[in-house]
Amino acid sequence: xxGAIHQMERELRAERASAGRASAxxxxxxxxxxxxxxxxxxxxxxxxENSGKSVxxxxxxxxxxxxxxxxxxxEKRTE
Length: 79
Prior knowledge:
The chain has helices at 2-26, 38-50, 55-62, 66-78. The chain has 79 residues and is mainly α. Helix 2 runs antiparallel to helix 3 (55-62).
């Protein structure tokens, strides 16, 4: 008896979540974090390569996250 009630609650919750995602998509909302501006990342890369500053200092000055910056550097090196 309790299992059936829990199953019904899970299904209702899934339906409401799906309806919410569909509603947001209809309003033009896709979700997720906004992408970091490519010009900020490029400026940070130039600053990092042409100065003696650490990655942490460069990221703070440029206003980008360290993880995003390292990912960007890795992409640039493979190109």
